[in-house]
Design a protein that fits this description.
With 289 residues, this protein is mainly α. It folds into two domains: 86 residues, Tyrosine recombinase, N-terminal domain (DNA polymerase, domain 1, Orthogonal Bundle); 170 residues, hpI Integrase, Chain A (Orthogonal Bundle). Helices cover 53% and strands 3% of the residues. The protein has 14 helices and three strands. It has a three-stranded antiparallel β-sheet. α2 packs across α4, α6 packs antiparallel against α8 and α6 packs across α10. The longest helix is centred in the N-terminal third of the chain and has 18 residues. The radius of gyration is 21 Å and the shape is globular.
């Protein structure tokens, strides 16, 4: 199962097949395989020869190494899948406990900070992709995976395909964002992928992450800004503008309303807004100098 070997073991092949049959995303598959391989290397044995006490010892080790709570729970998900599905040992997964993740309030940008941030992105493609991520509340992977055909100007919606959990959903397309996308299309002329990358692939998500880091510095923002920060800001700004929280839940693609409800704790402290940031987002997309 170790990743260092060139030959793919039958056990690893079986786990890959199990994940593919359940339509897990490529990123989730890579994460699960990495976690199980790390578990195997820690004990120097094939993971199918390890049991529940070994899992517990591995969790204790990871905590002692300062692993983040989300990363620890991702490992738990991987091991629960491996034992419950690939090894068909149904008695084990429910006994592999999740860590209770400390609930932190997300960092939120004000409407002015959103404008400053986006204006600091010099690349036409990256700026438009990040603007779209903010104005539609998209995850980074969802923004880069958009196709030209997903922009429905007649119904004023954007079709998000294969979002988190391989679920499709429809999100809002504001008139301001439509104007920006039309300007972008006239300049870039994308044919299939809205934000094309190399070859026949969309732009790499790492391009957006790098653009966030450089734009944060260029805009002089002290907050740490990521694509997900823009998503958090979108949700909070909608809530502050009076949008029903259940509508926001649908737009974000959250399974549980409690996940969306955390934005109420952020919004109440800055609710002095009288205009929706989406109405103020009239950035003119121009090619870099």
């Amino acid at each position: 199962m170790a990743e260092a070997t060139t030959a793919v073991s039958p056990l690893r092949c079986r786990m890959i097949d199990d994940m593919s049959l359940r339509n897990l995303s490529p990123a989730t598959q890579r994460s699960y395989l990495h976690a199980v391989a790390k578990f195997s290397r820690y004990f120097g044995r094939s993971p199918d020869r390890l049991g529940l006490e070994d899992v517990r010892a591995f969790q204790v080790y990871l905590v002692s190494q300062g692993i983040s709570w989300p990363a620890l729970n991702q490992t738990v998900c991987a091991l629960r899948f491996f034992y419950g599905v690939t090894l068909d040992r149904a008695e084990i997964p429910e006994r592999i406990v999740y860590a209770r993740t400390p609930r932190k309030l997300p960092a939120i940008l004000s409407a002015d900070e959103v404008v400053r941030f986006l204006e600091a992105v010099p690349s036409l493609k990256a700026r438009t992709a990040l603007t779209t991520a903010y104005a539609a509340g998209l995850r980074a992977s969802e923004a880069v995976s958009l196709k030209v055909a997903d922009i429905d100007s007649d119904r004023m919606v954007i079709q998000v395909r294969h979002g988190k959990g391989a679920k499709d959903r429809t999100v809002m397309l504001s008139s301001q964002l439509l104007g920006i996308l039309r300007t972008y299309w006239r300049l870039a002329r994308p044919e299939d992928w809205l934000f094309p990358g190399r070859g026949d692939k969309p732009i790499d998500v790492q391009v957006l992450h790098a653009a966030c880091r450089s734009a944060t510095k260029a805009a002089g923002l002290v907050k740490r800004v990521s694509v997900h920060t823009l998503r958090h800001s979108f949700a909070t700004h909608l809530l502050e503008s009076g949008t029903d929280i259940r509508i926001i839940q649908v737009l974000l693609g959250h399974n549980n309303l409690s996940t969306t409800a955390r934005y109420t704790h952020v919004a109440t402290s800055t609710i002095a807004r009288t205009q929706s940031p989406l109405d103020r987002l009239t950035l003119e997309v121009v090619p870099p100098a």
